[in-house]
Amino acid sequence: MNGLLGRAPVPVILGVNVVLWGASFNVTDVALGHASAGVVAFSRPLIAAGILLIAMPFAGFSLPRSRNLWLYAAAVGLGSTTITIVGMVIGTEYAGPAVAAVLLNSAPFYAVLMARIALAEKIRLMRALGLFIGFSGVVVIVLSNPISSGSGATLVFGIGAAVIGAIGYAASSVLVRWLSVNDRLSGFWGFTTAQFICGAVFLIPFLLLYGNPGATDWSSGELWAALAFLGIGSQLIAVVLFFVALSRWTSGRVMAWSFLPPVVAAAIEIARGNVPGTLTLIGMAIAIIGVAIVNHPRAEDVPVPSGDMEEHIA
What pTM was computed for the model? Predict the structure, then answer.
């Protein structure tokens, strides 16, 4: 896999990542028909960590031995898994799916600001324009079929949870980029396993509150298939690809691709015969144009350094 990731163009890596994350919306909906939100959320990092732990003695890697690496892994797992998932679920429940989706997809803006401070990554006007256009497309997609939200304190609570989820996603992504740039991400597979373990552990309180494992239909083959896809595809494979992309491209450029999973989700619905309205199609086109602008060579401030993370993938 080291050679494959080393040779693969970053747009291909992120393209696969976007498809896996985009498909997770539909697959999560299937899983929630048989299990609670807590069980589905907890299963994702648990399955990913379990597969890597089983592969560990055969693949020849080990968990981090440094306390600092474990702290970094805990921070990444907390942000990219725990806070993001909890923010998505609580935001959707109390503020409504439309509001939650828009706020969670604001993560690239936070990432750009954080990367400016932590990594001195500059951003040209062209890239800022692309981010704005891409986010506008997401807003159009989500609000083209608005669903009622809460009100008063309930709405504020849901909005706060969604914003915190976006910030957690952005912060963990910038941290991974910082670790790669500063050559502190040794033992890639061990680190990835550790952050999945930490993300799952931090989700235990959420599982206790939203779990209800007894009500889960464990006999359902559809549930197991959905959990397998979410744990292996949307969590394990997608996160590995995302980390590799962050080692080779700047945070803002990579995070802009986060605007595309809703486009993929809408495209899947079209393939299933559920053709959306005109506004949704317009939103999909706008989001794609925005990401294309962000990735235009003229939007890059400095030559993109070649990533070194693959050197740690063994």
Answer: 0.82
